[in-house]
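User: Second chain of the day. Same drill as before.
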Amino acid sequence: MMSEPNKPGYTSFRLILSVVCLLVIGRVVLAVPCALPKSQPDSWVTTKVNVLVQAARAAYEDDVRQPAYDRVIERIADTLRQCKLSEDAGFVKRYRQFVEYIKLASVAQLPDHELGFVVPDRQYFQETRQYVQIPEFLLTQTFLQSVSRDGTLNRAKLLLQEVNSKRDPADQLIFFSYRSQHLGTPDNKNSYQRLLIVIPGNAEKGVPEKWVQFGITDRGARIHVRNLSVVSAMPGPDGSSNFYFKDYYRSYARDGSISVKGRWELGYGDDNCVSCHKSGILPIFPGSGSVRANEREALVAVNQRFLTYGAPRFQNYLDLSRFGPGLTSASLESRTRRFGTGFGASVVGRAMTCIACHHQERLGALNWPMDSVLIKSFVKGGQMPLGHKLKISERNELYRKLIQEYFAIDDANPGILKSWLLASAQSESD
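Assistant: Same format as last time:
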């Protein structure tokens, strides 16, 4: 017989019933987000890909929208994990590129993965220290003080010439100053003055080639530019090179001394390296007239050196091929449907050739995540694509079409990113 209300047995029964109800409700709530991806996976994945690509385009066009993109990735990753879809062999086989993309993109959002690599930032810097150390001759107080301002830059160059006087011809430093067209330093977006020093390496002896770049404080500016960056190349026997990155900050003491320490170690965080450095090291396209006549030969020399490094690799820290194909990799059929029959023969159509150089076996694909300032400056500034002389209006049109073709989400003719993310599913259904 059931206990009467307000008696000990009845109270215990009510408590047990409440717990059971909560457990049942909890299981139902947990099951609801998994119902659609499990019962209608094609529809769910397509919807999520559309949202992802739209958010990616918004973040590409405006950094302010990056947090919204991050939330999209986080929510999709949570569903894959909560519903155990990443453990479902059938699901993974059907949507492999989508699943792997989300996994890699979500890792880059972790607080200790600001560099965008698959290992924590601390581990990356510990393991790559030998590749990105700054040579001692660039850390003397005399040199650091000379390179701190535009007004004393000539003294810094004289010191570099003195270093060269003691080095063999094959080990000569290549250096010049210039003004970047569009890219400020990480600590000052309005600072464009640079001094680049290329220090030759020796792959046979395990010595990397280093591109060391100092941000230079403009003449008359009160606040010092602090940034100092190192990008190193270690050529391999297969025609590719591994690249390594590190940003440093200079600290200016009241007594006039200058110290150098890693930006990350100082607690200023860091940036996603490969969002800009798809090719590892970037070629230099200075602002017009910013390179002195007697240093133009050095500019030519470093850009020729850039071409010798081969396909970019990032050791075991990141495989950029997992982010898919890049700009202009759409098929001719897709491009014709999007822009019209005669577009391929137009000036702009013939200039959509990024893929000729920017693919995984040459200079790296220009895929998302990528930096809009960099892409826009190269295309609209006239540096890319090589060999094409376009009017300003044509370059503006070219840039619009590059972005449209990559980020389009229409079902009848999806863009490059969406097509690739859904490619494994489409091949399964064929």
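Residues 25-112 form one domain.

User: Great, on to the next one.
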